[in-house]
Structures are given as C-alpha cells and as structure tokens.
Specification:
Elements lengths: L9 H10 L6 H11 L4 E4 L6 H15 L8 E4 L3 H14 L7 E4 L6 H8 L4 E4 L1 H9 L10 E4 L2 H6 L3 H9 L6 E5 L5 H10 L4 E4 L4 H5 L1 E7 L5 H11 L5 E4 L3 H13 L4 E4 L5 H12 L5 E4 L14 E4 L6 H8 L9 E7 L4 H11 L15 H4 L27
Parallel strand pairs: 1-6, 1-7, 2-4, 2-5, 3-4, 5-6, 8-13, 9-11, 9-12, 10-11, 12-13
Bound molecules: adenosine monophosphate.
Length: about 400
C-alpha cells in the first residue's frame, strides 16, 4: 500500500512527502478510507502506530473539500495536556499547506492565547475535557455544528476520572456527527460508551504487540531492591544511549532517584503530575530537542506522548499493570525502529513480571550486567529457571550454580 492509493487531497500529500513518510502504517491503511467515507470508528491502537495521522489526515481531507464557514468542524478530545499539544502539532503539520486554523485548549495555563485562537474561528479544536467544558459553560464555544468528534486515548480519560465530562461533551455535539474513538484497551466502560456514542462503527484493531515484539529488544534485570540505584548507575555507564526514559512507580521515587542521578553528574529532566504545566512542557521540549538525554517520569509520560527518538526505556520499577508495560515500552522502537527496554525487578515484583510475560505472550530474557557486585542471596528468588537461555555476552554469572525459583 502506498499513500497515493488513499487519494488524499494534494496539500496533504505534500505534507506527507515533506515529513518523509514512505507508506501508510497498518492503522492508517485501514482507518483512512473508512473515515473519508464518513463512517464511525472504534480503533484499538496505541500511540507509536501512526494513530494520530490515521485520524488527522482523513479529517483534514474532509475539511479541505468543505466550503461551509461554521466552526469548529473537528474536535479532538485528549486525556492529557501533553497529548493534546502533540495532536495539535500534528494537525498543524499535516495541514500546513491548507488554510487551516486550529485552537488548543488545556488547563493549568492562562486563557489569553486560547481566547485569541477561538476568536479566529478554528476549524479544528484539540482539547482536554476540563478546559473545554469551561469554555462550553461560558458559551465561548459551541459544538452544535460539529462534524467529527475524535475521542483519543479513551481508556486513559476514564482512568483519570473524566467519564462524566466526556459524556457531557458528547451530549453537546450533534447526533449527526461522525465519531472516531481510539483506545489502547477496550474495557467495559469504553465498550458502553462506544455503544452509546457510535453508530455502526467499523472496528479496527492494531495488534498491541507490534511495538513490544518486533522492534524492541527486552531484558529483565533481577536485582535486590536496595541495589536498584547502583544497578541503574552502572547500567547508564555501560550502555550507549541517545535518549533514555526511566520510569518509576511513584512521584516521590522519581524525585529521589532523579536527585541521586544528578548527584552522580547526570543531567536530566523530570515529568510527573506534581510538576507544574510550564515545567512539564519545558522538560518535554528539552528532552525532545535532545538538550537533555535522560527523562525521569511516572506513567504520566508513558501514554500518548510522541517522543520518537528514544533509544532506551528503563523501568526502575516493574509496571503495576501489564498494559502499562506496553505503554512504557511504546516510547522506544517507535514507528518500527529499534529500541531497548530494560526492566529492573526485585523478588517482590516477580508476579508482576509473570503477568507482563503472559500479557505480551513472550518470555523475556533475564540478564545480569558486568562488573556489578550483586548481593546474591537477595536476587536468588528472582533469578531465571535453569531452562532459560542465558543472555548473550551481557554479563557473567557471579556464581557457578544455576539458580531456580523464579
Ligand atoms: P503516533 O502513533 O500518532 O504517536 O505516531 C508515532 C510516530 O510515527 C510519529 O512520530 C509520527 O510522525 C510517525 N508516523 C506516523 N505515520 C507514519 C508513517 N506513515 N510513516 C512513518 N512514520 C510515521
């Protein structure tokens, strides 16, 4: 499949060419014709699969063919400010050869710029639910002429408690709208929403395993909990990374380990929900531009963000839910290029590791690093079973005996 077969409007083809995309990704090949046709969609695909362009390109195609003056015609709802910023950037980038106006609405910042953008009568509004409702209540924006509603990362929106906000926003849009719903997972609440908000949707599922199985080299590092920081410091010295995201379970843990890493001479930036919006945006910008090579983060950063050039992901803590592993790992090996995903785990995290392996249908190799003084007795219960293949050249066993008990 090549982009020409999708018969997109010329200005979009120019933008695609300029971005250097050679062919549509699977979700684009499936979704674009259906969306151009005006159908509803329920798509289960995570970011990293080309999901944003899969809805941005066909909605822009329809906009380009339309001559009516009402606004906004397209609304994209996103769970986080970071994702909203990214989606808006994508729309502006793909629409750069069209006469496109967009507005980006999210909380935690002043109203000035957002008011101005709305005064320009934007064709496309990208928003997080809270700030959008704020504008709707003040009647600074109406959705009664909306043509296409995109609900992105719906499972995440529900996790964040936006279910009522989303419902009330959908209720303010016309029943005749086209609705495009995307969600990495489809739990019952999302299914219920889709039954209520979508009409005869086309289901598109992009295998969630793509980014875990095919493009990422995984490794598990069993280690005693108290040695995790030392292992991290050693690993960072041994690997060659262009950019690495280190994920933590808690905000406090993220802050503590970040301070220790800084004390070890690493420069880094940090992303979690206690950090104010301006600093989060700056952290993300510095990291994306390569000014800082290490980003430390909680799961806020693991979903939705398009940070395309990450070479390594390190899970300092094993993710609590198997899906979160896939999301975290989705930061690397994106758009089908190589990445590395390392996960530290102590014996009390063993059951979560097994759950992840079941979820992704893949047994992950256990590895040890060279020149590290493992506290043997503490890693024993987390070590690989005898049948498992040792890693190739990544480290030597510090004891001659194989250990059991994983
Ligand atoms: P997304 O899933 O929307 O977050 O996109 C992930 C990354 O893939 C982004 O950096 C996009 O610019 C890139 N991308 C999207 N579509 C294509 C394509 N057809 N070919 C190559 N890269 C793409």
């Amino acid at each position: 499949m090549v982009f020409e077969q999708l018969l997109l409007e010329k200005p979009l083809m120019r933008a695609i060419e300029e971005r250097g995309y050679e062919e549509p990704t699977p979700i684009q090949a499936q979704a674009i014709p259906v969306i151009i046709d005006g159908r509803d969609i329920i798509g289960s695909a995570q970011t990293g699969t080309g999901k944003t362009a899969a809805y941005a390109l066909p909605t822009l195609h329809r906009l380009h063919q339309e001559k009516t003056s009402h606004w906004p015609k397209v609304l994209v709802l996103a769970p986080t400010r970071e994702l909203a910023i990214q989606v808006d950037e994508n729309y502006r980038e793909y629409g750069k050869f069209m006469n496109l106006r967009t507005a980006l609405l999210y909380g935690g910042v002043g109203y000035g710029k957002q008011n101005q953008d709305l005064q320009n009568k934007p064709d496309v509004v990208v928003a997080t639910p809270g700030r959008l409702l704020d504008y709707l209540k003040r009647r600074a924006l109406r959705l009664d002429k909306l043509e296409t509603l995109v609900l992105d990362e719906v499972d995440r929106m529900f996790d964040m408690g936006f279910i009522e906000d989303v419902t009330s926003i959908v209720n303010k849009t016309p029943k005749t709208r086209q609705t495009l719903l995307f969600s990495a997972t489809i739990p019952d609440a999302v299914k219920r929403l889709s039954q209520w908000a979508l009409q005869d949707p086309v289901e598109i599922a992009i295998d969630i395993k793509i980014s875990t199985a095919e493009t990422v080299e995984h490794a598990l590092y069993p280690v005693a909990g108290i040695q995790k920081f030392d292992l991290l410091a050693t690993l960072l010295e041994q690997i060659h990374f262009e950019s690495v995201i280190i994920f933590f379970k808690t905000r406090a843990g993220t802050d503590r380990i970040s301070r220790w890493l800084q004390a070890h001479g690493h420069s880094l930036c940090t992303l979690h929900s206690d950090i104010n919006q301006r600093d989060r945006a700056k952290a993300l910008k510095d990291f994306k531009e390569g000014k800082v090579k290490i980003l430390t983060a909680t799961d806020v950063a693991s979903r939705g963000l398009d940070i395309s050039s990450v070479t390594h992901v390190i899970n300092y803590d094993v993710p609590q839910h198997p899906e979160d592993y896939v999301h975290r790992i989705g930061r690397t090996g994106r758009a089908y290029s190589e990445g590395f995903a390392y996960t530290f785990f102590s014996s009390d995290e063993t059951s979560m590791v097994l759950a992840i392996e079941r979820f992704i249908g893949q047994e992950l190799p256990r590895k040890k690093i060279d020149n590290f003084d493992y506290r043997e007795e503490l890693v024993a219960s987390a070590a690989p079973p005898a049948s498992r293949k040792r890693n190739r050249g990544f480290g030597k066993r510090t004891s001659g005996k194989r250990r059991r008990g994983f």
